[in-house]
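To make the argument concrete, we let one protein speak, a sequence paired with a row of structure tokens, as a model reads it:
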Amino acid sequence: MQKDLINSQRPTSPTRHSLRYVGAAAVLLVVLGALIGISQLLFPNTMEKALSGQLRFADGTYRAVEVTVRGNYTQASTLSQEEMLRGGQDGGVFMDGILLARNVPFSDPASAFCCIEDTNTHVILAAGKGMEQILAEFYFDAASGQIVEEGEGELCLLLAPASDEAEGDALIETFLAQPDALLWRSAFQWEFETP
């Protein structure tokens, strides 16, 4: 009994208090991160947007198009470092109703954009995070109004958002100014002028 009385009067060390606070903060951060990750899995951010764009042909002509983005957009979190647009069965990135890409993953968290090649749709697509800017290359058959395999139509470059030629040029410059532009630029056949 006397030992209990002596132990209860002994002050606790400041190191023990510090460790308790650090431990509590670490547990709180883990729980908060798990809640954010689970909420993104259970309640994904539905994205639906329409962008005015232009389809440039290799001969220098262009036409106005509408680019639609529809799907679930997951931002990077503690559980998943990959941002992604998941189109599902009927979503994705479309130009005038023509599917360009079903899913758009941003696998490099350090990069502000991604570049993918969709072999199903024959499209090379670069997009900024949040799907605010889209640049795509494909062969287009004007007679059928469809994307075709390489060599079966005319090489085209899609730029969105861009309502005129000047905005299209500005979008190209934005993409070319990215630090890792050389990584995706080589995937395109389009002859980008050197900035």
About this structure: Residues 14-42 form the longest helix (29 residues).
